[in-house]
Design brief:
By secondary structure, this protein is mainly β. The chain contains one helix and 19 strands.
């Protein structure tokens, strides 16, 4: 499965655990809550707002101001992954569709990662969005085709554009959280926003409006 990375988060499939890099922690999108530090996991998305319960407010943050509500997420009773009220228009390369950001507990580079292994779970459905508008939902063989096409991305930093990502691909599993990919467009082609890598031409049919 794909490797994911932006500033402080990297994630990959094939049984490997995503993790948070401390080398760029000073530049990270973080919040402090309950005397603990959490880093933003922009590629994770809350699927249902009915699956959260308020547990307090942000004490301090680099982007999100104090007093924004913090929520426990169903399936994460240890609160190592939390949801935070977020009214920003976008979160990294993903349009903010839900009004929440997901943050993962960070205890240091030499400590185990608390990042959830969503990419190891079977994908039940793929949603394609343009901004906040749902374009398509795919299931069955289409899901497996999209996964294969994303895995066939080109080299990093070879699909550069000044345009912001308008499309996003959301992987939906049985988990309370989904997994996002920001998609950029240039000259009729598509690429992964966070890697600046070109995607195979065959993926275009899934983005047709």
């Amino acid at each position: 499965m794909l490797a994911i990375g932006l500033v402080m988060i990297t994630g990959c499939g094939n049984g490997e655990n995503p993790g948070v890099h401390a080398s760029n922690e000073s530049n990270a999108d973080y919040i402090d809550f309950g005397e603990k530090r959490y880093l933003n996991a922009w590629e994770l998305s809350l699927l249902k707002s009915t699956k959260i319960d308020k547990i307090g407010v942000v004490e301090r943050g680099s982007r999100i101001s104090g007093n924004n509500a913090v929520y426990e997420i169903e399936g994460y009773p240890d609160r190592d992954v939390i949801a935070v009220q977020d009214n920003s228009a976008a979160i990294a390369t993903i349009e903010n569709r839900t009004g929440y950001s997901i943050y993962v507990l960070f205890e240091g580079a030499d400590q185990p990662s608390h990042y959830p292994n969503l990419l190891d779970l079977p994908v039940e459905k793929v949603n394609i969005y343009r901004g906040t508008w749902l374009l398509h939902s795919y299931e069955g063989e289409d899901v497996r085709t999209i996964q294969r096409l994303l895995d066939r991305k080109g080299p990093d930093n070879e699909f550069q554009t000044d345009a912001a990502a308008k499309l996003s691909v959301l992987f939906i599993t049985a988990n309370t959280l989904g997994y996002n990919y920001g998609i950029t467009e240039k000259d009729g082609a598509y690429g992964l926003a966070h890697r600046e890598s070109k995607l195979p031409a065959d993926i275009a049919r899934f983005f047709v409006e």
